[in-house]
Design goal:
The chain folds into two domains: 87 residues, no CATH class; 60 residues. 57% of the residues lie in helices and 0% in strands. 37% of the residues are buried. By secondary structure, the chain is an all-alpha fold. The chain is globular and about 40 Å long. The protein contains six helices and no strands. The longest helix is centred in the N-terminal third of the chain and has 22 residues. Helix 1 runs antiparallel to helix 2, helix 2 packs antiparallel against helix 5 and helix 4 runs antiparallel to helix 5.
Length: 172
């Protein structure tokens, strides 16, 4: 476990777990995804803002930090050049809490949006849509345990297909 130490006036915090720099798999969502540029950019922004808020409010909670890390990984895969996501990725890896816009959506609303979009992606043709749909459903369940449909579908997908391979979203 790596703990980052710094003075409070430098904008750094102590993270109880390492937040390594993430390099997205640029080829994973490059072709065939049923999401156009603007939608990808919007989801990347919402996920980045959610991730940073999680770190700000729950930096001592390893589970919350893991959720934030997943949200940032997905954001960077959706839009590898999203300014908020790129800067947040670098700053968090150095122990700095990024300054981003407050999230537009609370976790319950974001969970619902991810779940509905994930279900629609799973109906679209192509492995990339099927995979990202599963990612969205899994994140919806993790972000809001009270989202009964997301929790149920995520569990059934895990039973049917095994654990989700988050490593697929990282550069090799």
């Amino acid at each position: 476990m790596c703990i980052v130490h710094a003075r409070a006036d430098e904008g750094k915090v102590e993270l109880p777990v390492e937040f390594p720099l993430v390099y997205p798999n640029r080829n994973l969502l490059a072709e065939g995804l049923e999401m156009q540029g603007k939608e990808r950019e919007e989801y990347a922004g919402h996920l980045t803002q959610f991730a940073v808020k999680m770190i700000k409010t729950k930096k001592e909670d390893e589970k919350a930090v893991a959720q934030a890390r997943k949200a940032l990984i997905v954001a960077l895969n959706l839009s590898p050049r999203n300014k908020e996501a790129v800067v947040s990725n670098i700053q968090l890896s150095k122990g700095v809490i990024p300054k981003v816009a407050e999230p537009v959506y609370e976790k319950e609303t974001l969970s619902t949006l991810l779940y509905v979009r994930g279900k629609n992606l799973r109906k679209a043709e192509g492995e990339v849509n099927y995979f990202l749909g599963r990612v969205f459903i899994q994140m919806a369940a993790e972000f809001n345990i009270r989202n009964v449909d997301a929790v149920y579908d995520a569990e059934i997908l895990t039973q049917d297909e095994g654990e989700l391979n988050w490593g697929k979203m990282l550069a090799q």
